[in-house]
Structures are given as structure tokens and as C-alpha cells.
Amino acid sequence: MFINVLQEYLKKHKMSNMVAFVDPAIIGAIGCGTVGDRSRTLSIRFKNAQPGQIFLLPYNSANHWTLTAVNPDSQMVYHMDPLKRRIAAEEWIEVVDNAIKLYKDKAKKFLKKKIMWENLAGVPLQNGSKDCGLFVMGYMKEICEDKELKFPEKWLRRSNHAYGITELNAIRIKWAKLSSFSLESFEIFSDSGPSKKLALRLRNSRLAKWENIDSGNSISGYAREFDFGYSTLVIPTLVMPTLVMITLVLPTLVMPTLVITTLVLPTLVIPTLVITTLVMKKS
């Protein structure tokens, strides 16, 4: 949802050909396939890249969010980690590098010998243990609001750039407005009636709490509730296979048992009953 807001911002300011996004649900470390699978998926997303366009890739490594910005044409990759200013994991580097190579190969474009990675050590660093997603959202917001896309120069070297409580709470409030109780989600409710009214009350109550949040309470329960973190995108990828198993696979196992119980067993039991009855009558 937050990405949708940024896309609208880019469209409004005529920057859609400068910045694009990749859905984190298709490139994450869990539930998105092998390294090869993710590279192919990413290369397809690069397919319609404009010259000089930057792709923003929010990436979850199973328990932590980072942001990778990729210019597939220039083969330039920028990595932003809100936790330790560290370089990307080898597996993720392989996913991105292979995606660029596949994209260049399919587009018949010249492939340089080396794909360059820059670790942007000057990005604002998180203080809490659960704020990585909020910081990644902040990075994306700053990048999209910079018409000259000078984020590499701004964040290349270690600095004192930081997000204060005010900035983080502003992101949390925006995320809260776009959460499951936002107006855009009311298609699942009736047009009127108690369900919609209840959802509106819950939404307004949550927003009121957020907008009146104590400026010193940076790790509140509301922060955890609306954290753009592990539970937002990764857990569904773990739950869905289970649901598929329950809805599709189990019936194929249960149905033969039901068939045997309802069709085969009667054919065995009824003759036995008939024979028993006749024998008893004779005796």
C-alpha cells in the first residue's frame, strides 16, 4: 500500500519514468523460490526499464528489511541497511546480479564485465529492533521526493543523518491510514450497515491514538501494530502453502476414504448380513 502512495506521488510529479518499484512479496528470502526463480522474476520486472530508471527493491531476508536500488541499464546497485550499514548478503547479491544479466541478455543490450554495488553507509540508522521496515519506507519516500535522484551522493559516506521520532511517527500515521481499516479496504464490507460503521470506528480510533501519540513513546504498542515488518509480508507466504494443502491436497486424501466407507463397505457388510439372517432362519 505504501508503495502505491509513492507511485501516485511519482505520477503526479511526472517522475514515473525515473523511479519504479518491485513487489517485495515476489523477491523475499522466504516463499519466493530459489535464487534462480527470484532472478528470473526480477529480470521480467526490469523488462520495460526506461533509460536511467531506478528500481527500488524492499527486501526481507527472513527477519530484517533492507532497501536495494537498481539501475539495470548502467549495472549500478545501491544497498541500504538501516541496522548496521553492512553490505548485502551473498545470496541477495547473486539474485540481483543474475537478474541484471538475464535482463541484458533478453534485451540484447551490452553487458559490462562487472556489476557495481555501493553500500550507502550514510543512511539514517534504526534505534529499535523492530523499526527496520519504517526506515526502509523512509528511504523510499526520500528517494521519490528527490527529482534529481542524488541519494547516492547524500548517503554514500557515514554521516549524522537520522530520522527523529516526528519523522517516524509521520510514516506510522500514513501507514495506519493505509492499513486494513482504511477506506480503500471497505470493498469487503457492505455499502452500509453495522460492519462498515464498526470498521470506521476502529479506524478512526486507531488514527486518533496515532495522531495524539506521546512524542517520547517511539516503541509503543501502536508502533508494533503498524510496523511494516516481518508479519506484514513474510508470514502470509508461510501461511498460504498451508491453506493450499488444507483446501486442495487434503480433500484428495480424504475423498478415497469416504468413497470406501460409503460404497465399498456396504457391499461387504450387506451380503454378510443377508447370509447371517438366512442361516439363522434355517436353524
UniProtKB/TrEMBL annotation:
UniProt KW keywords: Hydrolase, Membrane, Protease, Transmembrane, Transmembrane helix
One annotated GO molecular function: cysteine-type peptidase activity
Transmembrane annotation, as ranges: 228-250, 256-280
Residue span, Ubiquitin-like protease family profile domain: 1-143
Keyword presence, Transit peptide: no
InterPro entries named among the record's database cross-references: Papain-like_cys_pep_sf, Peptidase_C48_C
GO BP of this protein: proteolysis
One Pfam family named in its UniProt record: Peptidase_C48
Entry keyword Protein transport: no
Family, per entry: Belongs to the peptidase C48 family.
Protein name: Ubiquitin-like protease family profile domain-containing protein
Native species: Heracleum sosnowskyi
Record lineage: Eukaryota, Viridiplantae, Streptophyta, Embryophyta, Tracheophyta
